[in-house]
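Could you please review the protein record set out just below?
***
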Amino acid sequence: MVALYIAHVVLYALFAWYFLRLPNAIREVSFYGYLTALLILGGFLGSIYSIPISEHILLSGGNLLYGAFMMTVTLFVLAEANLIILKHVIRLVIIADLFNFLLARLMNFSLSQPGIVNTFNVPAGPFEVSAAFIVLGGVLIILELLFLTITFEWLRKYIRQKNILAFCYILLFIGVICADGTLFPLIAFGPNAEVLQIIIGNLPGKILLASSFSVPLYLFVIFYRERFERYIHQAPFEWSLMIQNSGQLMQEMAHHKRLQQQSSAFFEHSSEGIVVTDANFEIKDANPAFLQMTGYQQLPQINLWTIVTQVEKESVSKQLQNGHSLQLEACIISRDGTPRSTMMSISPLFEQGRLVNHVTSLVNIDDLKNIQQRLAFLAEHDVTTELPNRRALEQTITTITTDTALMIVDLDHFKDVNDSYGHPMGDHVLVETAQRLLAINEGQWFRIGGDEFAVLLDTNTNTQSLLTYAGTVQQQLVPVFELPNHARIHISASIGVSRYPQLCKTPEQLLQQADVALYQAKQTKRGSFTLYSQDMSETLKQRLEMENALRDALQHGHLTVYFQPQCNVQNGHVTGAEALVRWLDPDKGLIPPSDFIRLAEETGLIEQIGELVLRQTCELGTEWRARNLPALKLSVNISPYQLRFVNLVDMTRRILAETGFTAEWLELEMTESALMEREQEVIPQLVALQEMGISIAIDDFGTGYSSLAYLKNFPLDTLKIDRSFLEGIPANRDSRQLTQTIISLGHNLNYKIVAEGVETQAQLDFLKQLGCDTYQGYLKSPPLPVQAFMKLIDPQQQRA
């Protein structure tokens, strides 16, 4: 009997396996016809015969046909990699059950009629069927198929190993077959001792049946592995298709056709170069943009890698074979040998689990690269003179290991040039000064401030050589400076010098000591030279006095907040203001921030000053709202010290709670260097502040790293263009192009753009053309005391 049982299983499996080898359309028809036959035969053979496998195992013909049906459906779905088949199978089960029921009733009725010719004396009893049992059997089959499919869909989301996934699926198939032997009697007859005994007695037979019909599934995974991999790699099934009618499916197909047409149009007309290659990267198709980018007149019969450089090709190929899409920078060599920087996106395409094509898109980023190089240059160079800037000097100092002298050169009374002739003329003097200093051909020159230059000397650093060099510097500045407006001016310079290791223990002290020496030189006599010495106690004493005075100012309320309005570029309306700290000393009057902010950061007093400014700003903002003054976005500067040493989030949350100011009307400004030097510490603080509703602005953009590509990693809302970019507008071509680039890229990153230091109508008109959002500067108003600012924004006072 075992051989007879095996013959049944092999017979049912052979037909299903034969259908796997047929062409597509014939294969589908054959499978549906075979499944129909199994369903109809199962309705009658189940009660006609059974096969005794052993003393305790008896399998009916209906059980064999049920196992064959479940095995065939599973093979059909795996082979076609199309779960919509399940919808048709469910419909087939319903129709077949209805047909079986009607046919059984008809045959029972016919065989019961006296005049019927019954050649083989077939009794009518076997055709007395229960509609409830037929419905139950059909429902269970449908539920089992759905459970099998849904569970496997869930499994393939979380199991990536193909062999383990195949094992789990076959194990799941066995479990479903065994569960059928439990569910049907329980539902049909209810739970009782007799039913449980039947279930237990039938369980070995169900396990044998499930295991037997799982063998074809094992063989399918082994011999048709590509089809199985295609099935597990297909997109998640859209279960909504199960309830759609034919009309809806036709609409879905029409929609997909439209998408295909749109994709074709995009391919032909896209500005991005798109190329389709085979699995070995041989070019098979390309759009016009790719041909234009590479300089070919027609589709080149070449391998893509022959024109792609600066890419780890083996690593890329391996990742693509594993199904990963990649985006990377690459260099494309055009037909005439011209290299082009591109952003390359590559996606693999699979058919039946086999890699067949790659689709690659190429975007020319030559312009972006040039801009990035320019911004990188400007991050460490002065815009006006193109000399390395203070940041570059500080970085260079940290690398010093040998005898080195640092000389700081300050142009005396240079502010008078700007005030008398304007900043463009002042820039002209700075550029010519840089050229004269570079003509000395010794040392590395930097521009470290508005009117300050510095030079590092690593040879001839003895005192006499430094005196001689300082004299050469001053001699270079003796000739008259002739300005473009025909004015003639004379410039002298004060010089401060320090030496390492003779005068300072670490290279980092060079800049501090040279600053002290320069201060001493300016205090002693303009146009003089001073070498730092340890006995410069007066300078240190003054610094200490300034620190004490600053502490007293904090204690007695001599620090206050001024506001500089920020205006809409298009209509000039005041939309916000930047809060700026001012020191009103009872004896010395107004002390500018440049005289005490650095000292405050060095001594830690900036923490108290920062909290004071934030609190006063929020208090005034709340007061203005209570007076029904226009709602303004108020910006407060945050120092690098606060980001590093102060719990900025807690402090801000506490001040907002105590003052009642609305977080959405507060903006905190930080410099680029403060953000990037401690990125991992800063980002969580910025995220927390934004979650409170506070806006985050990047201040003085262009004076630091100047990397928009890097800044996009930070949660920012506003980008403030440094005033140095606007100084040359509209006359300076580079300034115009850089400003236009920053505004365009900033808007692409969804930043609000604020231009600082707008002083002329021409600058404002230029910003209007570029679509800049907001500006601030002396063209509208200098920073104002609170009462003056309130008068500026109060409509009633304006009318009065």
User: Anything to note?
Assistant: The longest strand covers residues 339-351.
